[in-house]
Design brief:
The chain is mainly alpha-helical. Helices cover 71% and strands 7% of the residues. The chain contains eight helices and three strands. It has helices spanning 9-18, 22-46, 72-95, 101-115, 123-132, 138-161, 168-186, 188-208; strands at residues 2-5, 52-56, 59-63. It has a three-stranded mixed beta sheet, covered by helices on one side. It starts with a strand and ends with a helix.
Amino acid sequence: MRMRLHPVLLPFFLFLIGTGGIAMYALLFVSLLFHEAGHLAATRLVGMRVRSCTIMPYGGELIIPDRQLAPKRDRLIVALGGPIATAFLLLLVSVIPFPGQDDMIFIQQALLLLNLLPILPLDGGQALCALLEKEENRYRIRSFFLLHSIFLLLVGSMLLASFLPQSLPYLLLSAFLLFQNISAFRFRKYGRAYEQLKKHGKNISEKNE
């Protein structure tokens, strides 16, 4: 498995460094790694293979081959693995006093709140998709959630733009998520065709065995 940092993290970390938030930078980075460790532990639990892990400002992005073809229960467990890890870390840092405790608590609360929003590709959106999807409506539900996410992020970006420059890191994050959803919506038909082809090939293999 390959791990890397997404370039979009750079402006967030530069902002923290520029405002004297070196300690916050370190706490944020550790928190993101811990959050992603929760997802990785969940993939091991359900037997999913992870090709790569990219650390994002909101957590991470796992590349899991044929993820959408996995059972609903497995996808739900993987989606909730990160928030559960963050909630555990929040509980831990709340009861153990240490320098920077207040900042660490704030970061966990912010990560937890952000990731549970019902927006793709955040964990809350992934979990809702897994819960609502059925074999016959999987693509319709996912397309609906992509449009839903695009709308909410457009509204959020416009609201954040009215609070510049203080809201710059959040506006960049919102714009990044918006771009991700627009790209996913544009290429959804290709993803659907690939999944159907993969499923068809699997069925043929099972019949030949």
